[in-house]
Amino acid sequence: MSENDGAEGGTPDGAAPEGDPGTDGAAPEEGDGTSSAAGDGIEETDEELRERVADADPEELAREIAALRDRAEEAEGRAEEAEERAEDLESKLVRKQADFQNFKKRMERKQERERERATEDLVERLLDVRDNLVRALDQEEGADIRPGVEKTLDQFDRVLDAEDVRTIEPDPGSDVDPERHEVLMRVDSEHPEGTVDGVHRPGYEMADRVLRPAQVTVAEE
Q: Within 10 A of 214 (CB to CB), how many other CB atoms are there?
């Protein structure tokens, strides 16, 4: 073969023949140093782990494991205790609510009984007043019943006083109280304008509560 044929059919000058194991550009074969390095790294890591386990004190490891188990059991116990405590508090709350409702009902019944007894006591005292009025009317025709009626009225006033009932009878010339006085009309009067001129019908109040306002006339110039 001629030199030209060798130049055209061969490799360029200075280039290593393909597949030459002695050149830098050769492709690595399977099982070369790169994969071995990766494998060596994993083996070194495993080796370090085995060395640490091997170097550890078995008793110390056992104590650590036991301590972890104790903490886990303690945490579980606290959780169970908290749940039991919550259930106990909920049960107590339900009982307290039931006790309060029962107490409220008892107090309402007690107040109702007290109102009933107070009403019964008032009616009993008023019955005595009525009996005296009946006796006054049963006197003979033409008899002077005024003393008996006055005595009965005095008895009736004592009953009202015992119940803290007060008469509302404003003096002439006093200011009008819209809460305690009911104005019937305005009349010519010698009293200052806008003041009470007279009482048409007295009112009554009980424990600072107006039972019936007094009917009054008001002065007008």
A: 21
